[in-house]
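Technical annex, item 7. During the second reporting period the consortium partners agreed on a shared format for inverse folding records so that results from different sites could be compared directly. Each record opens with the tokenized structure and is followed by the designed sequence. A conforming record, contributed by the partner at site C, is shown below for reference.
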């Protein structure tokens, strides 16, 4: 056997099982991470919503940005809680 074949065969003998099925705990952990990621996104929306502007166009842009961030936060919270339950 060549050196490459020996290295490949010895690596295959000592490698652990890489692909393992996901457990319920894995899904709970991911659900919490996704659900909690919605909090900072909602805070960004809150900050956009409460900025004061003299110009109507700037205020409208901030309102649209706030609604967009709140929509994204709602989607993250919904997906996270769906995975949890």
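Designed sequence (site C submission):
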């Amino acid at each position: 056997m060549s050196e490459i074949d020996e290295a490949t065969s010895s690596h295959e003998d000592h490698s652990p099982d890489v692909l393992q099925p996901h457990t319920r705990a894995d899904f709970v952990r991911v659900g919490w991470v996704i659900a909690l990621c919605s909090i900072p996104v909602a805070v960004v929306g809150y900050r956009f919503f409460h900025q004061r502007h003299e110009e109507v166009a700037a205020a409208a842009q901030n309102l649209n940005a706030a609604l967009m961030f709140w929509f994204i936060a709602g989607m993250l919270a919904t997906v996270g809680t769906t995975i949890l339950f």
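The radius of gyration is 24 Å. The longest helix spans residues 56-84. All partners now use this format for quarterly exchanges.
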